[in-house]
Amino acid sequence: MKVLLIEDEPELRKSIKQFLYQEGYVVESADDFMKASEKAADYDYDCVLVDITLPRGNGLDIVKQLKKNNSRAGIIIISAKNSLDDKIAGLDLGADDYLPKPFHLGELNARIKALIRRRNFEGNQSIVLNEITILPGERRVKVNSEEVGLTTKEYDLLLYFVSNKNRVVSKNSIAEHLVGDNADQVDNHDFIYTHLKNLRKKLTEKGCRDYVQTIYGIGYNFKTD
Amino acid sequence: MKLISKTILLYLLISLPLLILAGFYAYNLINTEVKDGTDDALYRETLNMQNLVKTLTQPRSLYLDADSLTGVTLLKEKSFDYKTSDTVIYDRLEEEDLRYRLHRSGFSYNGNHYLISVAKPTLEEEELKEGLLTAFLLIFGFLVISFFVVNIVLSRTLWKPFYKTLQRLETYNINQQEEICFDKTTIREFNKLNDTLGRMTQKIRADYRQQKEFTENASHELQTPLAVIKTKLDLLIQSKKLGQEELELLQAMENAVHKMASLNKALLLLTRIENKQFAENKTVNMPGVVERALENYSALYESKGMTIKKQLATLQVEMNPILADLLVNNLVQNAFRHGVKNGTVVVEIAGEKLIVMNTGEPLQVKPEELYLRFKKNESSAESLGLGLSIVKSIATLYGFKLGYAYTNGTHAFSVWLKPQTDLL
């Protein structure tokens, strides 16, 4: 999987690059508009992450360029502005997703995976993880071919864990993923614990192994290896 | 109190004691004058009587009228000089007591002594009082009426520009695009007032705008460094070399960054609402929004052992769907967050009203301060203190009226999901 990362802030670029590398992606990066435009034209990518405010240009123009060249790359806009206009403009131009800064790497990872799944298999491909089978198209989960009835939040939680398997995900990143774009967020993590407890119970009842490890204080690790 | 009412009241308050004083003065003056006049007449009468006595051939008493108040009495010895007094006599004709002024004087002629008494009916004090009171009440009434008329005319004409200015100010919103402008008047004071107000609002608008832009820019600029910290922490917690102590430190940092990012996001959101950047309205199905919000926070109430009761009548509201979600989510979250463990949360849609209730302790802040930014009850350290501010700014944007009540241990927040015209 090849990813093009267009981001002008060096440290953020470094973080994302390191993370994607760990996840097994091949990462190319560009720190200004001209380089980004060149790379986007010269190579084929599975996914392009593009910041809107770039030195010497606007990230939205990269989106336009990719679409004009009939690129098959999935496009995620990462922006500090989180403005509705940018979001609508970006999605109208053909971007697939819009991720406002600051985001957790786990969230970025989940979005990239969902995007690649959607583009390559039209969402019909199932995710198989030992005894767990997830059908993202239908939002259904099976354990040992037996259906598990999950609530929306439990399903989102499981998919988030599976997307970030064998990584430590912080409680805050889970909270953000589950509650979404609501402003006045809760530091109280009791509700994550409640969701997790219910999810664990439903999975283990069907004979699923308990993959979720608690990492002291900070979060959880969905360990499969 | 209205300016006119106050002016009239002041006029009346001043004129009333003046009128009372004038009344007393008039009363005394009339009384004294009448008495003096009567006494003069009595004196002249007495002189007449003396002349009459002088013409008598035989000294004897004379009675000149039926009541025998006026007459000459023959005395055995010399009497006192004279005496003037008031007396009351029952008048059979008019069937009432009448006041008389009585003058009695001794008179000696040719060695005979006489007592001459003359009387004249005098002014009835009661009648005088009544008459004066009526007159002064009439004057007072006339004054009141004329004050009213004069003041109404004044306020219709002279004060008109002032009331116009006032109305402009009342309907002016610092957020609106146009500048405030006042009409020219022919009165110098009002022109000066309008000029000063115009300059002041212009300055306030400029300051307000600058401050808003600053908040907005600062928040935007903060997003990238926050993203750097967040992603670095994400990478750091993957390390296998971390002990419990390091993880504790990282957790504290992670929580702090999370809070800061949320805060920043919420402040930006408030700015965007106030800047009317959520313009696109759609027909929003309110019960659906409520159901989604309850689902969103289901784990929260589950973990607190709360009971949910809902009574959702159908209601469609014309507004931005994102803002509708935010409005309901924040109200519902507020109820779950501040509700007591094992308490009850009730969500109701009745008519055009959305009511969210939760059982809980009484407020530690004043109800009118609930919607202020960063104002929160001490008990909830996990909240940013911006949830209700967001509710308020959305309500203000659409002209929805908010209500709050605390009865029998239940907090109730209500929103009338219909623009109220008197709210601006």
Describe this structure in words.
The complex is a heterodimer of chains A (about 220) and B (about 425). Chain A has eight helices and 14 strands. Chain A is α/β, with parallel strands linked by helices. Chain A is elongated. The two termini of chain A are about 20 Å apart. With about 425 residues, chain B is of the alpha+beta class. Chain B is built from nine helices and twelve strands. In chain B, helix 8 packs antiparallel against helix 9 (about 385-400). Chain B is rod-shaped and about 155 Å long. The two termini of chain B are about 25 Å apart. The interface between A and B is large, with 52 and 59 residues.
SSE blueprint and pairings:
The complex is a heterodimer of chains A (225) and B (424).
Chain A lengths: L1 E5 L3 H13 L3 E5 L2 H10 L4 E5 L1 E2 L2 E2 H10 L5 E6 L4 H10 L3 E4 L4 H17 L5 E3 L2 E4 L4 E4 L2 E3 L3 H12 L4 E3 H9 L10 H16 L6 E4 L3 E4 L3
Parallel strand pairs in A: 1-2, 1-3, 3-6, 6-7
Antiparallel strand pairs in A: 4-5, 8-9, 9-10, 10-11, 12-14, 13-14
Chain B lengths: L2 H52 L7 E2 L7 E5 L6 E10 L4 E14 L2 E10 L3 H33 L2 H12 L16 H49 L7 H31 L7 E4 H11 L1 H6 L3 E6 L3 E4 L1 H18 L5 E7 L2 E7 L27 H12 L2 E7 L2 E7 L8
Parallel strand pairs in B: 7-9
Antiparallel strand pairs in B: 1-2, 2-5, 3-4, 4-5, 6-8, 9-10, 10-12, 11-12
Order of helices and strands of chain A: EHEHEEEHEHEHEEEEHEHHEE
Task: Estimate what percentage of residues of chain B fall within beta strands.
Answer: 15-25%
Uncertain segments of chain A of ≥5 residues (pLDDT<50)? none
Class based on secondary structure composition and strand pairing of chain A = alpha/beta
Largest interface: A-B, 52 and 59 residues
Number of strands of chain B: 12
Shape of chain A: elongated
Largest sheet of chain A: 5 strands, parallel
- For the residues shown, what is the average pLDDT of chain A? 87
Radius of gyration of chain B equals 46 Å
Helix percentage range of chain B = 40-55%
